[in-house]
Amino acid sequence: MVKKKRGFQEVAAAAEPVTVEENISLNNLRANLDEIKTYDGVIGYILRNSTSATIDLKDPTKLIDYAIISSSALDASEELSKLFDLGAVKDIIVEGKGVKVLSLIIGENKISIFLEKDADCEKILKKLH
Amino acid sequence: MDNEVYTFALKNALNEIRNVCPDITNTFMFRQDGEIIVGDENTSQKTMVHVVNAFDGIFEKADAIGGVECITIEGSNGKVNVSWLNDLYFVTVTSRKADMKYVNTVTRVLIPTVLRLLEKICPTPLKSKSPLTKTKHQPKIPMDEELEKPELMEEPVEETVMEEPKETLAAETKHEPLLPEPPVNQFIVENLGGLLVPSDTVRIDTEILSQWEELYEGRKIEEVEIGTFYGKTMRCKVKTIKDSKYEEKGIIQIPEKIQLALEIKKGELVRAKPIVE
User: What CATH code would you report for B182-275?
Assistant: First the structure.
């Protein structure tokens, strides 16, 4: 089983090495996010890049609202970074009365993690960086 | 006058905060509906409008997270912070080396104190002036013209009701229903060109026109008065924006001829209000 997997990766690596690297980092990111989701106070996450999106939320009824907040926060950070010369954006935190949203960009991947108000952002940032 | 005092006091407070904390590069305040209250002398109106517009999507969906209390954007060279203080959003932009504990101590003590003080001295400006100022995220900036005509903007209908006997008012309203004060919205100028484009017509968001028409009980708004910050005004026809990329961005498309007449150009701010006859 392991051999087969390796074989597949090697073939793909020979043809498109960059894609495989990207896939590995994306898989690592997904694994990290799945682990983060088990942390206290984490409600869910949205991970998207130019080709795919992964959404894992405890309450799917809020999916659209959360997705808009996520993309708006990331777009706003890009605009304000240009406007005020903030440099590379490390993270964006939007705090509501009940929920807070931690958004960040890792490579091509845009991530938003939804947390309860008192959840620890630092632990998540350490895990992701 | 109240508006002037209010704005002056707040502007000074913001400038002083920057003096005390030189690592703060920009500060300004805006209401939940997107109306800009005041900024420090280092922050242009265009910048403030840009920032408020950038947060548009977040504020529109804020209910999903229980309303926005704070937004922080951390970059490698600096940080933008938006905090909810005394029913206003307070924006600070700081450099990388800023001591955030010190910045927060100063801003979170000084600003609420000044706001509370101003609420006691002149409470009127804290309240919206007309129903349309509550329109979500149409950045509004106090303008000189508005300050010069406080009697137009600062006397809500309710005050008239209190001064006059109810019977008189009821009798008057039967014959001449009161039209709401024309709402004044701020827009960023965008060029409008093309072969078939009429030179006497400007274009604004469908949403704004609908709100105006709703305010005037379905009357069709066909004309607007455009005013510049330098006091030039012009009456022109109005239609809705056709190009979706300019929608919901607080933009007004103006043909070159009108831009020349008003001595404005792309990117500048103008105010516009509906003409209802």
Answer: 2.40.40.20
